[in-house]
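pasting for the record
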Amino acid sequence: MIKLFWNTHNQTKPNSEDEKIKEKQATNYLWGQYHKKSSDKWIYEILKKVKYNTIENVTDLKKEDTLIIIDSNVEEKSELYLKLNIVCSKIFLFHLGDEFGFSDLSAVYKNCNYIWRPFCSSAYFNHDKVKCIPIGYKSGVLDKKKKTRKYKWTFTGTPHKSSRHDLLFQFSDIKPFFCHKTEKFDVKIISVDEMNEVLSSTEFVPCPNGFFHPETYRLYEALECGCIPIVENAYKYYDRLFPNNPFIKVDKWIDAKPIVLDWDSNQIRKKSDECKLWWDKEKNNIQDFVKNKIIT
């Protein structure tokens, strides 16, 4: 039987007397909760073509079950995966988080039949048992299918790094726009409902690189809501991850200004439709790949 176990939120609560260890426990605990809250809809969409039973505890596993496990901070759980490998006939891991990619994951990955993970790096682009998947959109993001889009562009997030400051500077005279700046990641953010309203009313979404890795939720939320993403072309990351993608790519944010300012409604509609069709096809391809790996 195929069983699904979501394990990201089952982290050790901060309890160590060592302050450094306690701080790390607190970070892992918060991120584990975040992944469950923010990524469940995306992961369930990826798995929509697979039939499985959801379990709440690994004690619900029986000998020879096939396990789909969604997890984070796996580098600290090698003993768990060793035990799971003894019980299960196959283990398929969706490894969330790990944006920095500094940890040695071999002790866990060797006990899995296949792994899907976001935040791709050179080590995983051509790996024989690891497939890179998009980080996806935050749970609850939904296109409200507005007939007209009143904002030329939208940015929500933390304006860290010079690139984001330059983006806001270059786009500041392109109106109307929506901008909500935050001081830290996931602090004083707008609600998902408001995000849906804003993105469904936006034509272009500039997608600067993340804090450490190029990928952010922003790109996939834009695609989900029918916006046109404009991505930084650093390292040609998205061409490696998604060959033949339809995104607008720029080396400098000033290069995007004439596009956002001068494109007419037909150009905007054509590119928006192209991005939406591509994204629907990409999601379908991911679903088929996941299904074929798990059931064969």
